[in-house]
């Protein structure tokens, strides 16, 4: 037995209850050792990560077995040995299943006198060493029974301990967040070789699903690059189970060295298309049918990033055969209920010599000056406050008829709810009745293709509300599909509230305000606490897009349907109200209990929802299970909600600084659930002891059971407080408060300069910095605006610069350095004095950056010298959402590396936050790599163009002492720099993504346009000028900013360009008539 173990590739992992899982290995062949991480995958601060966890493991997702799903605590060493034998005898270990994970219940509850873990003598009498040959290769660190500290603080402690052990140990963080396929897919962009998203173990073979369902399970885990950890009893696997988990072709997709997790590129009701790139210019494709009947599912090339006219070969990974048919433009398959089809697609040619890529793009969805256009598209004058009413679906589903609807309408009137504002009756059914309608059904014709006709019909019937669902659509993009109905409704001449029920798939909050009066930000809600609170979290991310006329919709209210406690329903109603969500009742209003009527009829809470200021609340502080939500109201008031999600009682405190109230203000608070103004007045903060979901707790300021406190805070009568109540975290008119915190007058345009870090790292000295400063002057770059010199090392000095000042690591020599530079000075007219502070994020004390960075803000303001303040927080806590109150720029991404993949991923991540950039505060996707040698000239042109049009800081990261002509041509392009420094200061967005088109408005009614070809194939691109917000018959001059010439013929209607692989075209458009 021991010899078999020694010769196997199998490794061993286990767990203890005190938040610890470990792995020990069986001695294996050298070939089982993974290679070191390639710098190609240095995403999100890989350099720092490698310093912290440089173990070279996890180059592909781990594969193995885990005891928990099948055995729970009923384990012993005999089972473990037999499992190890089974992995070898079945051949699974040769396929890559090399880890054997003992999950829990293997150790005694108490450590020995030396503090060491002790295996249970009854079940593991030989000890763990006898099983694992004394070597640990894998540690799974669990989250249960922890001490309440933040996982971001707690997990790195073990990281450092493992690195000190001197042995490469795979480190798996089991932080117990929501898992499974859908939630795991959200984090796809963060997965890469060396670090993988883990939606939990495989259930294949445990008997709870059909064979086809297990095939879907295994396929999704494989294409998602999830760890493949078998959770069944491998000693007794059926033929079907082994056939699934041993599918070499599917395993190859999971273990592909490119290491990119697949995404859902399209979902239509129960039909889903998952896709992800593979090495060798291949694509993994998974067609999934979640529904109860067979479907024909089509994947279009534009969904899969395959050029439109490519001829593609497809291999079926479950049938193990290459299909005879060669596919052009799309591939279609009939998929049975709860089944899937999985293919590897490989382009083998093109259908014709021309590859024209045409499309309507994203119409006006990213036009920054969109309010007039939005009103032209949807000028119905409705939804000045969130809609209120009733929807039949949550309670009745399809079991609905005219009598129920009439009785529900009567109930709204007789209960007094109609007088409170519940005026809309929405029928989620296969018939059209009454004055409002819900459209979409298997059994009723949809409106797709009949928008004008149906809109006229709705108007003729007196319909006031249209909820337009997303099921059974034609696969077209919702941002193209929904506006068709918008225009149809506007043409009827009747104001009809237009609700977009797109389920949040394509983030309608980003484009819905031009199309509808509200838009679903989430999937369907269920009558459970977990479902409700998750919808609240998802919806809160889009708070800034809500406003009078257009609202975020996290789905209907479940209050009164019986799945939650009264106090949970109070939390539910409170969050929906403060979030300015539509208040659409989903219960049987004919038979409401007193508790339900008390909740949904709370006038004071409804008044918060219907407040005319119309600003959605946000979570301004959260610490574990304690949350503080706040949002400004009209009349210099604030709505405050304290929530305890957890199983323990907590004292939850809202600080004035979190909610935008000056620190010494005296505040009066009214409890909206107790309906009384508190006798105590508050200064500095407001606290309340919060109960749990399972215990009652009495008190003036809390609600029993799952406690939440909702108060409206009003500033005192002192005039000095008026106008300063609303925090910029949730107040749209934030500049005044922001300037109070950081009134340094800097950053009116993105900063330009040089940073030593990317090229020199810590190999820096005074001579290099002086020479770099001289080079900026002698090359003429300083005259173009490159004026900041940033020394990226643990010392600081110089004219306009301060180094990457390491958090909590002021170097003792820093004063000496400053003295040295002050004494010797710098040539070419540089003077002394710090003008720029880049404040880094490493070696912090674990406090939140939104608490930590403002301390330096205040310190800088007290210094009496204007100092540009750059927040280098790596984008971890989304500093774009709060950084504009604190600094002049903020990093939105991890560290960049000198590769095309890294540049494009940083550009994508940075673009998400485009709306937060403005004069005085800029999104920062990290320094420029132009000139460092890792990319071609054309790729560097794309890099510089993206940074310029994105209004990113232009901070050179190369050795400016030795610039090549190509590098100088790129970074010295005056016309492209002018785009970056344009005084309008609006960051560009992508308006098309098939071949990428970025655009931004400029001062003087001009437009910057960047067309990028990321692909390996040439592209002929034509786009409509309407995509940029230019009226369709407008004549436009176009200047090519890299060719430095104006096109001879003005453009009308369209712009076309031919692009080679990894090239771009950048234009300045000027309408002339």
What are its keywords?
1073 residues; alpha/beta; TIM Barrel; Immunoglobulin-like; seven-stranded mixed β-sheet; seven-stranded antiparallel β-sheet; Glyco_hydro_27/36_CS; signal; GH; EC 3.2.1.22; disulfide bond
Structure description:
The protein is an alpha/beta fold and 1073 residues long. Among the domains are: 39-143 and 449-616, Aldolase class I (TIM Barrel); 177-351 and 382-402, Golgi alpha-mannosidase II (Immunoglobulin-like, Sandwich); 636-704, Sandwich (Immunoglobulin-like). It is built from 33 helices and 51 strands. It has a seven-stranded mixed β-sheet. Strands 8, 9, 10, 12, 13, 14 and 16 form a seven-stranded antiparallel β-sheet that branches. Strands 26, 27, 28, 30, 31, 32 and 34 form a seven-stranded antiparallel β-sheet that branches. α19 (529-540) packs parallel to α20 (566-578) and α20 (566-578) runs parallel beside α22 (603-609).
Structure, briefly:
α19 links the parallel β23 and β24 (551-553). It contains 33 helices and 51 strands. Among the domains are: 39-143 and 449-616, Aldolase class I (TIM Barrel, Alpha-Beta Barrel), CATH 3.20.20; 177-351 and 382-402, Sandwich (Immunoglobulin-like), CATH 2.60.40; 636-704, Golgi alpha-mannosidase II (Immunoglobulin-like, Sandwich).
